[in-house]
Amino acid sequence: MALTLLGGTRAAAPRHQPASRSSHRSTTTAASTVATQPLAGKVVGIDPGHNGDNYTAPAVIDAPVFNGRTTEACDTTGTETDGGYTEASFNFNVALYLAADLRAEGARVVLTRSSNSGVGPCVTQRAAIINDAHADAAVDIHADGGPPTGRGFTVLEPVAVGPNDAIVAPSAILAADVRSAYAAATGMPVSTYDGTNGLQPRDDLAGLNLATEPKVLIECGNMRNVTDAALLVTPTFQQAAAHALAQALTTYLVGS
Ligand code: ZN
What we know:
Elements (H helix, E strand, L loop, with lengths): L1 H9 L2 H4 L7 H13 L6 E6 L9 H4 L2 E3 L4 E3 L13 H18 L3 E4 L11 H10 L4 E8 L9 E5 L9 H19 L12 E4 L3 H4 L5 E8 L3 H7 L2 H21 L1
Parallel strand pairs: 1-4, 1-5, 5-8, 6-7
Antiparallel strand pairs: 2-3, 6-8
Helix pairs in contact: 5-10, 7-10
Bound molecules: zinc ion.
Zinc ion binds next to loops.
């Protein structure tokens, strides 16, 4: 924690006042901060889709909400593997690994839920939490309930529907970064049944329609496919997925 505070305090100094020879210690600290905390000063939003107790409150999660273009349900239960491993658990685990990776790089992380034992929040509220935090970039984490014969991951990217007009172009860059990093680091193939080469524009999701920061939603694999499911349930894969997302976000944020 002390290192984080020190880094946060010193990170901006070199931009405005080059260190003099008399402040050798500060120069060393600032240089290592740049090297080890490339996301210092950045805010990243992470939305782990669904929630572990959504199934207990259908009246809440089925309620219609306006998503910027039309209405959709407040939330859904999400999918699960044949063995009963829930998407909500997967999403939350990957989110925690990702948050740790990003914090280690100096970012401030904003999560839309703090446990996997609650209900909601609605997709509109999830978007608002990240918007209100003035995130520099954000990712919604999901795993799909696709056809059992289909494999792979898809990166969903926003389409301009009004509220998100300004972030469609940068989100496409982020989507390409996520696709590349995820394919390289996880071994999960691009989807065989959704999108084109791992990318799919969508205009029916509040998380993308209402975003005011560059944002994508990743379907990390198909929980209904036994090959994908065997990967998705393991901590090893979940950590690899998180590392890939952290790498993509860093590439995007440091390069932009
Ligand atoms: Zn989902």
